[in-house]
Amino acid sequence: MRLKTIARKLIPYGAITPLALIVLVAYVGTVLWSIKISLTSSRSLPTDTFVGMTQYAKLFENERWLLSIENLAIYSVLFIVASMVIGFLLAAFIDQKVKAEGVLRTVFLYPYAMSFVATGLVWQWMLTPGIGIENAVRQWGFPNFEFDWIIDQDKVIYTIVIATVWQTSGLVMAMMLAGLRGIDQEIWKATRLDGIPAWRVYLSIILPMMAPTLATVFLLLSTAAIKLFDSVVAMTQGGPGTASEVPAKFIMDHLFGRANIALASAGAVMLLVPVVALLAPYMYARMHARSNARSHATSAVNKKEVPLNKVSRGAT
């Protein structure tokens, strides 16, 4: 009996061990290895020649890296804001119990099922001057219409925003809709009785109640923005010139194309910093919420036990 009890206790640990090993080796191990390589003078092959922060100094002296950071900042702000606004509006629309809700949800979510490469190629064709959108509008009777953002160095990054927002808004819609469906309908009934406008209810009541959902969506979109790569390669290859360069493409080019794994590793480490900066407060907030929930539950149990003790003493 005792052996069976021990075996039952060990089964969960045995099941989770492979996953724990993968996390430690494939994730934590590679991160530590990248940090180590970034502190060396490695080129085509790893070396143990320690050079300190030299690679990081070279990284921030590189105009291409600085441009990629600037592009990433512009892209991240526009991508996150647009995806969250459009996704929420779509969710609010579907939440009105519209007809063919299942069809609409499928249509809005379908772009996310496509690969970023396929999305990039489709939008590249649509945005290329002379064909796609520009050609269609000219055939509608506007012969002087021009839409050449994809070949304009100052506007090309906005075309990537358009393509990725189109693809990601469906996922945001699904998550927002789940959050909206978790709102008690009695709140809506009370606000209707008070005559509060719908937009005010959303801003003052619904959105604050959806704070956990909004935080999750923001975190997912932020990490997606930081690792942007596929869409840029498919649509512009970082061009025209280096106008749409992003950090992930800079890293891949130096890792495989320029045989400078130390500089690429330094870039990868710097790209990890904003991810950690986003995850750390999120994880802390979750742990803090759990600890508060446990303390409240414990205090509630203790409060229930006190009267029982008093009653038992009075009876004796």
Description:
With 316 residues, the protein is mainly alpha-helical. It has one domain (57-289): MetI-like fold, CATH 1.10.3720. Helix content is 78%, strand content 0%. It has 13 helices and no strands. It has helices at residues 2-38, 54-61, 63-94, 101-113, 116-127, 132-139, 156-181, 185-194, 198-209, 211-226, 230-235, 247-257, 261-315. Helix 3 packs antiparallel against helix 10 (211-226) and helix 12 (247-257) packs across helix 13. It is flat. The model is unreliable at 308-316 (pLDDT under 50).
Structural class of the secondary elements? mainly alpha
Give the biggest sheet.
none
Low-confidence stretches: 308-316
CATH topology: MetI-like fold
Main attributes?
316 residues, mainly alpha, MetI-like fold, flat, MetI-like, Sugar ABC transporter permease
Write the layout of secondary structure elements.
Elements: H1 2-38, H2 54-61, H3 63-94, H4 101-113, H5 116-127, H6 132-139, H7 156-181, H8 185-194, H9 198-209, H10 211-226, H11 230-235, H12 247-257, H13 261-315
Helix pairs in contact: 1-13, 2-13, 3-7, 3-10, 4-7, 5-7, 7-10, 10-13, 12-13
Write a short abstract of this structure:
The protein has 316 residues and is mainly α.
